[in-house]
Amino acid sequence: MKTKRRRVALSIQITIFVVCLAVAVMLIGCQPENEILDCESTVEQTDDGAYIVATMTLSQNTVEDVAIELDVGGSFKKEIPITMDDYVAGEGNTYTFEKRLKVAQVITGDYVITFKTATDSRETSFSIDETHIDGSEAMPSGTPSPRPVRKSGWTKFWEYVGKNADRLLRYFLEHMRNTGIAVGSAVAIGVPLGILITRFRKAAGFVLGFANVFQTIPSLAWFGLLISIMGIGMLPAVFVLFLFALLPIIKNTYIGISGVDRGVIEAATGMGMTNLQILGRIEIPLALPVIMGGIRIATVVNIGSATIAAYIGGGGLGNFIFSGIAMVRYEAIMLGALAASILALVVDFLLGRLEKGLTSKGVSRTKRNEREGAI
Length: 375
What we know:
Layout: H1 2-30, E1 36-46, E2 49-58, E3 67-72, E4 76-81, E5 87-91, E6 94-103, E7 109-116, E8 121-128, H2 130-133, E9 141-142, H3 153-163, H4 165-199, H5 201-216, H6 219-230, H7 234-258, H8 262-270, H9 275-305, H10 318-327, H11 330-358, H12 367-371
Antiparallel strand pairs: 1-2, 1-9, 2-6, 3-4, 3-7, 5-6, 7-8
Helix pairs in contact: 1-3, 1-11, 3-11, 4-5, 4-7, 4-9, 5-7, 6-7, 7-9, 8-9, 9-11, 10-11
């Protein structure tokens, strides 16, 4: 029956995950498109040198994944990103960018310049011969040949992943670092504190209530309070995550140790075991599943909460989410959320295996622990 319940719970989790993934992909496919409304390319010769000039008008004022690809006679091909420094004008809902590429000299041949955004593509072309170089004829210009590209949500997502693979790895490691330090510190303090209040029951209500206060204050409010003290960056982010991890670890440690059968404790005392021996050989092993449950919950919750660390420069996968919100790039939001979700599921699985490996076969959570509120 217990195995069946676990399978049902796992099936529900997988179903929710797949539904959320499908909705996210649909949103990516429906996101506002950055269309190329107009574009033109030419070559200019001035007193200070020759330039290849590419001008494009976009429907959005964003240059993320916007570039031009230059192909000269099939012998030279290069993709050059467009930056906000190339912005020249804007009117209504149109935004014009101009890229000027200085060249050592103008060569003869066919010039193909492709303008690209995440959702659109246009190509311009012109030919230059000796009459253009010696000034007998004016330099030609290329106008766009309509070639719109409408990409599916999956295509946009995987293209975004490919272009940001290095950032994904860096943010992923930052996310693990923030969560690891926060949860590790919470375990180092929370488990001994949870054990301590089992010896001093009068202090238990105060300690648990104090830890619960940390959970009631929103994380953004914590960041606002701590920025004036710790500044921005990793330190305040990890400190807030540490505070959020304390309650489940302290509470589950307290309930796990308190839930050990008093008859077993009395039998061990009668055999001459010291308090420290009882704690290490009986109480902690019997309470380990409950304690590990608190650590697993603290870790999974922290992995999700750690995305907010990017808001104050703490790094992590939240960078994708916040940049996606700012740029209306659903694939960026999905990448950050999906990576954090996968990390949480993998870490929860690994901690579950660790719990199983550390727990004696005859030990399981008691009904008393469940009734008394183990998380």
